Amino acid sequence: MIGSPQMDFLHKTCDWARSGFKGVEHQSHIIGMPTNTLIPEEDPYGPGGRLSHSSRWGHSLCPRAWFYEREWGWKGEALPILVFGHAVEECVCRVLRENPALVSANAVSEVFDSPTRELGAYWRRRDRLNTIIDQRPEAAWNGPLLIPMGETYGDIESIMAWADARIAVHWPRAIASAHESWLADANRSGDWEEFMNARGHQGPQLAAAGIELHLEEVAQCLAAGGGAGLMDFRAGRRPDIPAPDGFPATHDQTHPCAKGEGEVSLLEAWELARPWFVDPEAGTFTQQAILPEGWFQGEYDLVYRWDGTSRIVDIKASDGRSEWAASYPVQMQTYAWLWWASHGKDEEVTGLETWYLGDGSRKVYPPPNTDEMQQFEDELHDFWEQHIATKGRRDIADYPPQPATVPSFAPGGGEQVGETDSSERCRQCYWAGECEGSGRKVDHDGATEFVDHDGSSHPLNNVSELIPRITVEGRIGTWKPNPWRFGGIAPALSLFTGGGSLWCSPYKGGPLAVADGIGGGTSVRIEGGYLAPTRNGGVQLKLDEHTTISAIEEDEFEGHQSPTALHRANIRGRVMSLSRGEGETNWGKWKRWGAELATADGPIEISAMSENIPFAHDEVKRDDEVAVIAGYATAFGDKKQLSFDAETVLRIL
Ligand code: SF4
């Protein structure tokens, strides 16, 4: 298969993932590649257009809940337990990355941190800034600077003692970072202190259970004489995508713990057995495994490769008794298929395991055969076509309220020991107040006007009346074919229309394509633009990847009128979830606050940027009833939005 089109493609995608060291010769033969990034030009759907295991599984739990979350963007509560699991995994990975001979038991947590850099990633006409591991030779890697200490590690127990000390160093950092991200989540819920007292304090024990399971691998690697990678390791040759170990991927010197010859040592086995995992310093979603065709993505926790094959392990900061245990066999089957399908259907994993750190157990699954994986792929692709490729066009009628029952399992994801009625799922569901299947639907107030506390009355609009995207026609005056930094143009233009002049500017890269020949003086029809205020209070048309610009003849004008003002509306609704963000552009820092509202006739997102964020936003809670007066109708992607400017007022009812 080496040299085949599929493997060439895989190399290209992996080269892109290693973009920090383009041009460097690969040092060893191809073995499992656990992460890749698609070349933007060959990424037809982008991050939001891919299927994942959690999405597929979520649909089976209740199609209606899935619809609310995936189509309407409602977000569930962010409970401490969700970030706790990440902290445990981070702690395990930080220890795995280190070496007992290079990092002393009491060294600071940051001693083996991988250097990072910011890299703009893009797909279609969208982009974002990713934090990636800096593989450039000049980056500040600590591994090559460290000299092995004198300590000897004669047995597994002495390494475990070192690992326990490292966990004690890394855990406070990992849980502090988890706490920070919980605090920053607009939908956070629960009591952090209470959670930490009840369960969170067990983090170090869970991490230790993970390391103990890993040490079983180290012991096996030692017993096997070092496994398939010993010769390469001693010669300073590294896999194409090495496990994070404090050294750059391009490092071509022999590891300081490598012996010249003889039996493999325990420290060598520690190095050799190390699985690949997502580097704790890598930004979110930057070390995914993406199907070369671009419609699926996943992220492996641990990929063991020391025996010359690839085995995938998923770690769970639980004891495997909850209903999620039902999804894990499917998750592992998904990983087996993803590995096979993204390795030219030429390389299969040889092992699949879930590690339940809550009771220190491994659950081992037999890998599916190729027929099963092909069938699985066909089913997943059908699902993707039906439910993911249709994003923005899904019909709620296709997503009935059909809650699944709630099973429970013996520890370690063992036998099913219980199953509640499906009404239990509705009882716990965030969306019960909106869902006709819950038996607890709360009707919306049928008010047609909102009376403010100063006595002023405001007629309320229906969401269905709002027109987020519009069509305009006219002749281009000023034409600015600004280059977009990732290629092509992001045009800005003034359009002379029947109603006057309208400034049109791109959002990010602007329209997907602009035909040759369009420029100053061309008559055009612009479809799918959305209105936004200008800095001086005027109105402009924004052009994004949902917008098209086509040249038209004079006799093809259809009479679309140019707007002279923003389309204002007053909306009353129930807050289903909240959102918040911040960032920086060439024009300075920005902040965003928003909420997903359910109204009597459909959902809408409300959104405010920086100085337009209303004073009362901090008071808004999930389930609050709010009124937005004089917002302006606009769009964000495939969503209908009511945005805030200086005229807009928010009231909590
Ligand atoms: S209330 Fe029940 S039926 Fe409705 S979305 Fe939630 S789980 Fe599904």
- Tell me the helix content: 10-25%
Give the biggest sheet.
5 strands, mixed, barrel
Ligands and ions found: iron/sulfur cluster
Enumerate how many helices there are, as a single number: 12
Span between N and C termini? 64 Å
User: What is the average per-residue confidence, as pLDDT, rounded to a whole number?
Assistant: 92
Description:
- With 653 residues, this protein is of the alpha+beta class.
- The protein has three domains: 5-382, no CATH class; 470-556, Nucleic acid-binding proteins (OB fold (Dihydrolipoamide Acetyltransferase, E2P)); 568-652, OB fold (Dihydrolipoamide Acetyltransferase, E2P).
- It contains twelve helices and 24 strands.
- It has helices spanning 5-17, 53-61, 63-70, 80-97, 156-184, 192-198, 203-223, 230-235, 266-273, 328-341, 370-388, 423-428; strands at residues 116-123, 126-133, 289-290, 297-298, 302-304, 311-316, 351-356, 361-365, 406-409, 416-420, 449-451, 457-459, 470-480, 492-497, 500-506, 523-533, 539-543, 548-551, 568-585, 588-599, 602-609, 625-636, 639-643, 649-652.
- A five-stranded mixed β-barrel has the order 13-14-15-17-16. A five-stranded mixed beta barrel has the order 19-20-21-23-22.
- Helix 4 (80-97) packs antiparallel against helix 5.
- The radius of gyration is 28 Å and the shape is globular.
- The protein starts with a helix and ends with a strand.
- The model is unreliable at 1-7 and 9-31 (pLDDT under 50).
- Iron/sulfur cluster binds next to helix 3 and helix 12.
